[in-house]
From TrEMBL:
Domain ABC transporter: 19-246
Name of this protein: ABC transporter ATP-binding protein
Keyword set includes Nucleotide-binding: yes
PROSITE patterns from the UniProt entry: ABC_TRANSPORTER_1 (PS00211), ABC_TRANSPORTER_2 (PS50893)
Swiss-Prot/TrEMBL keywords: ATP-binding, Nucleotide-binding, Transport
Pfam families registered for this protein in UniProt: ABC_tran, DrrA1-3_C
Length: 312
């Protein structure tokens, strides 16, 4: 739904806003939680924000919402810094439950929608839409504390979506969900991105991040350590070849140019290549030993890359 705003004080265009984190730093006493954090999330992009506990993910998200103030830098949605009016256009799902436990689900969602500017009638329509979409329409008359943790998580997502946000910021949205609920939430995030909404979410479930996200940022020690598409990030890792040459003698690849290391596992050999190595030369060397049943380029998974980046 489109809502009118006073002239000269309009929020960013709905579903067409870039979320920009620009040089944000934050310290707690002597602890540097964020150090010159900069990245952007484009309209229609799903951005995965990953890092170890304490890396600075939640601090970044809270600053993006205006819940915390930065020591330096700026957060913008569209071309505007985040203020109260802009914040109303954001859907936020915190890692910790941010719901009233003794309030009924339907009444709570309608109340939150109205806080974001919807009329009571529009809020009721939105509550019905999202509770049905998330499979909790049968629980609107229950209090939140009567729900399972998974259903509480669905209500929390409904609270982030009920006002038709221009930006979605989700902190560990998949935590505690069963596989069916994970699929539902994944579909919702894809749908919102297809509608032009910038979506950023943090997660420790890196297989989900790899599957869902257009780009990924890896944060460690309050700094962005790596950013790019999954393919771009995986290409940063060492190239490896899996070779199945059943007649090859032990150590057959040790003298092949471009092979930095070889690890034998039965009839298969895992070769680590130096940058710029000629894989065709490796294949020719393997064929000289006899038939080759497998010759596969292997790149590190996002999980392997994450370990490499955060321990560097």
């Amino acid at each position: 739904m489109t809502r009118s705003t006073p002239s000269g004080n309009a929020p960013p265009s709905r579903h067409a806003a870039v979320l920009t984190i620009d040089g944000v730093s934050k310290s707690y006493g002597t602890v540097r939680a964020l150090d010159d954090m900069s990245f952007s999330v484009q309209p229609g992009e799903i951005f995965g924000f990953v890092g170890s506990n304490g890396a600075g993910k939640t601090t970044t998200m809270r600053i993006a919402l205006g819940v915390l103030s930065a020591d330096a830098g700026e957060v913008r949605i569209g071309d505007r810094p985040v203020d109260l009016d802009v914040r109303r256009t954001v859907g936020y799902m915190p890692e910790e439950r941010g719901l009233y436990p003794k309030m009924k689900v339907g009444a709570q969602l309608a109340y939150l929608a109205q806080l974001h500017g919807l009329s009571r009638a529009d809020a009721d329509v939105a509550v019905q839409r999202w509770t049905e979409r998330l499979g909790i329409d049968g629980r609107v008359g229950d209090t939140v504390d009567a729900l399972s943790l998974g259903n509480q998580q669905r209500v929390q997502l409904a609270a982030a979506l009920v006002h038709d946000p221009a930006v979605l910021v989700l902190d560990e949205p998949f935590s505690g969900l069963d596989p069916v609920a994970v699929d539902v939430m994944s579909d919702v995030l894809r749908e919102k991105a297809a509608d032009g909404v910038p979506v950023i979410f943090s997660s420790h479930q890196l297989e989900l991040v790899e599957r869902l996200c257009h780009r990924v940022g890896i944060i460690a020690g309050g700094r962005m350590r790596a950013i790019g598409t999954v393919d771009e990030l995986r290409a940063r890792g060492e190239a490896q070849l899996v070779v199945h040459a059943p007649q090859a003698p032990a150590g057959w690849a040790s003298a092949v140019p471009g092979v930095a290391a070889a690890e034998q596992s039965g009839e298969r050999t895992l070769l680590t290549l130096t940058p710029g190595a000629d894989d065709q030369a490796v294949l020719a060397a393997a064929l000289r030993t006899g038939p080759v049943h497998e010759f596969t380029l292997r790149r590190p998974s996002l999980t392997e890359l994450f370990r490499e980046v955060v321990t560097a």
